[in-house]
Every structure is written in C-alpha cells, then in structure tokens.
Amino acid sequence: MIDATHDQSAHCWVPGAADHREFPVQNLPFGLFSAGSDTPRPGTAIGDFILDLAGLAPLLGTHAAQAAAVLQPGAPLNGLLALPPQARRELRHALFALLTDDAHRDAVTPFLHPPAECRLHLPVSVRDYTDFYAGIHHARAVGALLRPENPLLPNYQYIPVGYHGRASSVRVSGHPLVRPQGQILPPGETKPVVGPSRRLDYEVELGFWIGGGSTLGTPIPIGSAGEHIAGVSLLNDWSARDLQAWEYVPLGPFLAKNFLTTVSPWIITAEALAPFRTAQPARASDDPAPLPYLLDERDQQSGAYDIGIEVALQTAQMAQAGDAPTPLGRTVATHLYWTPAQIVAHHTVNGCDLAAGDLLGSGTISTPDDDGRGSLMELSRGGRQAVTLANGETRTFLEDGDEVVMTGWAERDGYRRIGFGTCAGRVIGNPNG
Amino acid sequence: MIDATHDQSAHCWVPGAADHREFPVQNLPFGLFSAGSDTPRPGTAIGDFILDLAGLAPLLGTHAAQAAAVLQPGAPLNGLLALPPQARRELRHALFALLTDDAHRDAVTPFLHPPAECRLHLPVSVRDYTDFYAGIHHARAVGALLRPENPLLPNYQYIPVGYHGRASSVRVSGHPLVRPQGQILPPGETKPVVGPSRRLDYEVELGFWIGGGSTLGTPIPIGSAGEHIAGVSLLNDWSARDLQAWEYVPLGPFLAKNFLTTVSPWIITAEALAPFRTAQPARASDDPAPLPYLLDERDQQSGAYDIGIEVALQTAQMAQAGDAPTPLGRTVATHLYWTPAQIVAHHTVNGCDLAAGDLLGSGTISTPDDDGRGSLMELSRGGRQAVTLANGETRTFLEDGDEVVMTGWAERDGYRRIGFGTCAGRVIGNPNG
User: Fold this and answer.
1) Which InterPro entries does the record cross-reference, listed alphabetically (chains A, B) (predicted)?
2) Does domain A129-428 have CATH number 3.90.850.10?
3) Nearest chain B Cα to A152, which residue?
C-alpha cells in the first residue's frame, strides 16, 4: 500500500509524538473531548496532546472539505462516520500534512490541549449495538464448563453467532459500574431470589464502529463488507454470570449484560490499522469451509486484525497501597474465528440494515491457554478456582472497588506502534445490598 | 377518574368524529404525517381527518406551552415523549377543548387534512427496542412443540423474559417485507444451506412507547413504572422460524427477527386508554407470586390493558379477486402474564436505563385456544397442519404476496370505542431466490 500517512520516517513536530508508544502521527484516532467546561468537540490524540479538530477545521482547507463540515462542537462523531470512507481518509491526510510540516506549527499549536486538562466522552451516539461471540477459545472454554464432551455448539463454525445488545448503556472508559441486582437462582434451589450479582465479570472484546450504513432489505456482500468498518475501540462487555444463568433460556442474555458496556474513548481508524491486517488463523482440517456469503479470498488473506490486548485488575487494596494493577491476561485479536467483514456480511444477509454509529462487539477474545483468558469465568473455572493476584488477594469474580483496565496496541517490525488508549471501569457497590 | 377528556357525551365538531369507531375526540393519538410532499410533522387522528399539530401549535396557547414548543415540523415525536407526562396531558386537554367547542372551528379547520392525501410515518426515532415474551399462551404453545411434557421453562413465571431487538429495522405499517435469506438447517442434515426463509411468520404484539426515561444505575420501582409508558401501538414481530431454529442457541434470536418489525402509525396514549385498564388475569393457585420488585397492589388491580387485536391474512389471489382478508385470530391483551409496569420494573432492576423513544414489544399475545393464536407457527402446529383460508387456499407459513393486517381497539360499556388503526405489511419475494 502506498499511502503517505504510512510513511514511518515522517517527523511530527508535536511534542512527544516522535517516540510516542500510542499516538504517533501514523495513528490519528478520532474521539470527543472537552477542555475545561467547554462543549465536547471532535479531537485526535497526537503525541502528548489532544488536538481540537473543530477548531482546526478551517485550516483543513479544500483537501478535507467534507470532513471539515461535520467537525462541529457539540455533536458526536456520527456525522464523521456517516461520510464516505474517502472523506475520512482525506481528513487523515490533511492532518498528517499539517502535523509533519513545521511550517504549520504556529497555526496549529493553539488547538493542542494537554490531556490532563481534558475530559474524554463517548465518541459516538451509539445507534444499534450488536455483540458477537467470535472468540472461539472463549466459546470452547465457556462451553466446556457446561458440556465438557461437546463444548462448541453445532452452529458455531457456520454462523458468526451474535445477539442484540443495549445501545443506551454503552459508556466511555472510566464510567463506574454499579453492581447490578437481579434474579438469581441459588444453587440447588428452584425459586429465585433478588439481590446484587455475586458473579460479576468482565469480557475482553474489540468494538467495531460502522461507518457507511446499508439499506433495509439489501445485504452487504462480503467483498465490500470491510469498507463499512470505520474504526475499532476496546470494549468491555461486563457480565453478571448469575443473572445470565437464570434468565438466558430461551431468548439469550438480557439483564446480565445491559447494565453497562464500556468502550475506550478513541476510534482507531481502519486506515491506521491497515498495516496490521493479517490472514485469518488457519482452520483445522475438519473445520467446515465458510458458506459462500462469508467467503472472500482477500478477506481470508488479510481480513483479520493483529491487535494485542491486555487486561489487568486493580483492587481497592492495591489502589490504596499504590500498587499497579495485576495483569490477568494478554491476548490477540487473531484468535477471533470470524473477521469483521464476515460479521458484517452475516449481520446483513437477511436484509437487516446497518447505520453509521452502530457498534459491533467481537465477542470475548481468549487465547487457548491461561495466558490470555478474556474473562474471570474462564480463569476461575466457573468460580471454582480462585485466581491469586500480585499482592496475595484472590478473586473468582469481581468485588466492589475492583477496577478492570484494558489496554490495546498494534505493532509490527518496521512500523510505529499504534496504541488504543485505555478501557477501564471500577465496580461500586449496589446501594440495595 | 374525573378528567374532562373522558367526558363521553362531549360533542366534537370535526366531520365524522361524532360516531367514529376509531378516532373519536376521546382518542387523540399522536403520529407523524405528511400532506403531499411536505415535511413530516406531528398530527393526531380525529374523525375523518388528520389534524396538523405543528400548524396548530400557536393556537394551543399557554395551556400546553411545553408540548407546543416541541410540535415542530421535521422532527419525530421523541421530543414529545421526553416531556413529563403532565405536559402530554395538557396537550390532550387543550386539543379536546379546541375540538369540542364550535367557537374554534374556523381557526382549526385549515389544519385538518383528509387521510387520503396524507402519508403516515414511523412516529418515533426508535432508540432501543426490547421485545418481551409475556404472552403465556404463546409461550406454552410454542414450548409444547419442542417439549410436550414441559412447555414452560422454569424461569417463565418469575421473569418477564425479554431480549434486545433491532431498533434500526422498525418500520411503520405498510412497509413491504422482503423475504429474508439466511442459514437454514434442512431437516435431518448437519450442514446448513443458505436461502430464503421458507417458514416466515407474523407475531401479534403490542408495542409500548417509553416516555420519560431513567438514569443508568437506578432501577424504576414498580409503583411508578407505569408512568413511563406514554402510549401503545400494534406491533408485528415478523419471524423466520427456520433461521431462528438454527441460530438461536445460545444467544437468542437475531437474524430471525431483525429484518423488519412493523408498528401501527398512531401512538394511542396512556390517557386515552385509562378507562380500559383492568386487573391482571388471576394466577393459577400453584403459580408463584411475583417477586417483591414486580409486585404492586394498584398494578395488580388495574395494570393490564383490555385491548382487542385481530389479525387477518390477504393473499395475492384474494387481493386480485377483491376478497377481504381472512381473519386468522382475535385475541386480547389481558392474556399477557406481565403488565407493562412489571416489564419496565424488570427491565431496569439491574440499573439498565430507558429513554424517551424506546419501544418495548409485549411478546406474542395468543388465546389459550385456536380462536386467537398470535402466529402461524401455533395455528399450523409448527408447520405440520395447514390452515385453510376463506377462498380455499391453505397456509402453513407466509407466501410471497401475502399481506398480514392487524387491527386493534379498546371498548367498554359506556365508553366510546378507541381504535388503533392498522399494522400491515405484505411479503415480497427475495431477489436472490
């Protein structure tokens, strides 16, 4: 790919950008921030700063006119996501040019804000949120807790299994998680009780942001499905396992999931991630071939994302002692059985329409071993085996005061490392129990 | 209840209103219409006309100032739903006063439009859509097809079972249904094929529109949950049974449902329906009592809606011959096992937030006998027993060209009949097969 914004030797004049481990000029993610008490406005993270894109819009000139027109204070990034991909690429190129040419330093500098003086907001008004289940090692591990002989259900290797989540309760990193209450069936009982969840868990996922949408009644073919993904964030699909076990038959998870979904604040663009696309992991020889509507040669060769994710836990005791979070797992998105393009093609094969601002969760991304389990449910073997943390505390599920911190990155020899920022949330006790 | 808008002897001067079977002045539903090529605008149905509420807003004066401010052309009714219930009641009272006093005839008449010159639109930009499963006779009948010995699952009489649906594919009555395609497991096979659904069905439901929302982390108590329902429409939860059977384990229905959900155009307000509230049907002596968060004396006594619904089918052959649709069932919403207030209290018990413009489907409302089955799945015993229509045609599931027409009403001695209008949609063939 010949693209100026992938020039790895380009020098960015913004302080801290030259050797930044998350936000070099090759990243240029999109987000929504406010400085002080200002209205939230579109921004990008560059080096040690946040750049106000609404303020900068007049400087973008004719090279990114479509994007400049939607970079307004007060509005979430749905307008930017609704533009054709080419318009977002023009914006990226215009920003890259401004930030790598010293001649623009004086004009651009007034729009740089120190992150410490800013607040990050949910970047998009989430339209519909769909959560998939494409992490096969998670599906196997969770299935094995219920059906040791036959962990994967018969449809798993044919269907990118997914379900509708709750859009209203998606929040940006940092939003506290009020421990949910609900109906729980105590072990050995036949009548449920109502109380705070005692099996509260995280799930390590990616969130794919839909750019251009589609029309009701018209499927998106696999060959163009990837173009509908505008960018990627980290996603924590918080789950209450005890609520889920009692409620989920026959219509799936509901209150076990819809009390909060956390995303990282920056949308890492498809363009920034282009160098980190890779082949789908090889299927086992007895795995079925994808059905034709899910099969595309280019997607098989380069449809997966080589994105690393680490999840860590900081208990209240650690926070008080000033201890760093204990890493609980490190995984990589190539463990997903289905690519984002396959997920999009499946979601629309029946004519379901997608829209700019839709969020698609990948499903929990686990490694096949204990190095990178994407949930405590897996690590603790369904709560039967406690996990020991760095300070000697143990956990089967989350306790009040625990903070779950996810970080993500893409790296590859010869390329600048691209960071995702943080997706974090701390559990606070339920006021009713 | 002493409320001027329930004066059954009030005379409305609008032509056709005095003896209208759907839209007397005691109804005054809210909808979105356009006359000719105008921008869609809020309206109400009164007698033989649609009244332009945006045009009328300046005449509403100080009695309904909050509502008048949001009755703008171009916007869906989310703003009206977001107002406190009292503001919608003031609007209702102001309209009732204008329409029952001859002195206002000349001023109001210019804002009346003949429906034949108007188009009705989806009244609300649907935020989140949740579909419940509260029709116990439907749950029993469908459960019996799979588990004759034990049709109801253990959680059914404790939990108002529900799942998240797709908000983007909700459409107003009249929108055509493109027969969805998807993965289908042929009987006796282990590998799925892809093709158009052959087991396409309707589901007779009510849709409850959420007015005032709630805050993430804060449950809505059962005692005030009913106040969050601003109004009710008819809802057809179109379903592809063959897609559903293969995809729904373990995360619930997805592509089997999200290709289209149809609602009737008018929101029949909670105020118009107040005289038709009634007690929940008596539980059987061995039914469990609702858990405390679902139990409220007033809700038990008057939380259910006495709303009748008829579903009818007009095939292409009938339409060509000019034959009326064949009625397939007539049911009543008191067959719902849970009240709307119980559904709202359950939805939020874990802290999930609701917002103005959310849509809650009731679940399929069937009678315990064949007079009012809410789906073909039930009528045809899972497709094993064809239904004979008035012209001799037979159906197990829907065929191309079939139109499903739902109508609804509330009636009671001493009260004017309130109509819901129509919720209809015709199946068109899948272009791929």
Assistant:
1) Fumarylacetoacetase, Fumarylacetoacetase-like_C, Fumarylacetoacetase_C_sf, Fumarylacetoacetase_N, Fumarylacetoacetase_N_sf
2) yes
3) B250
